[in-house]
Amino acid sequence: MQRPAAVYVWDPFVRVFHWSLVTCVVLNLWVLEEGETAHRWVGYAAAAWVGLRLLWGLVGSRHARFADWWPTPARLRAHARAVLAGEPDANPGHNPFGALMMLALMALVLALGLTGWLMQTDALFGEEWLEDLHEALANALLVAAAVHAAAALVMGRLQRVSLVRAMFTGVKRFE
């Protein structure tokens, strides 16, 4: 299968979403004080970004739409076979495993936003189980984000394309 030297895959909204979400996560995990107003608002902003990305998955550009990359069992099997056979990735945008990770990351961010908001309600304020759940979700997000970043580097190396650069430029350039 012949692949082009370069392909435009990630539109400006997808790239702004990605790096804005990275910024929100970094701020809330390592910079802002837990429970403070800034921490809460950055968490709400992260959840809002995910909500916008979900909408963009319905109406956005070709490779941003769910239909282009939804990780069906058939797509997952085909991608796994291609990777194991050393064949080039046939998916211009997210590969099916990357899509699974993307969905998991977004679900974690939404769950963090929900639990963070619930901790501020009169009914659940100060509930230790909710605080523990929020912290567990934050730790799960940290692990998932690390796996996501490592996978982008490894898959980029295997496929001979800088996925990190592509998330800045929108263009996958193949060696």
TrEMBL record:
Q: Where in the cell is it found?
A: Cell membrane
Q: Does the keyword Disulfide bond apply?
A: no
Q: Cross-referenced InterPro entries, in alphabetical order?
A: Cyt_b561_bac/Ni-Hgenase, Di-haem_cyt_TM, Hydrogenase_cytochrome
One Gene Ontology BP term is: respiratory electron transport chain
* Keyword Zinc applies: no
Quick one: a GO cellular component term? plasma membrane
Record's protein name:
Putative Ni/Fe-hydrogenase B-type cytochrome subunit
- The source organism is Tepidimonas alkaliphilus
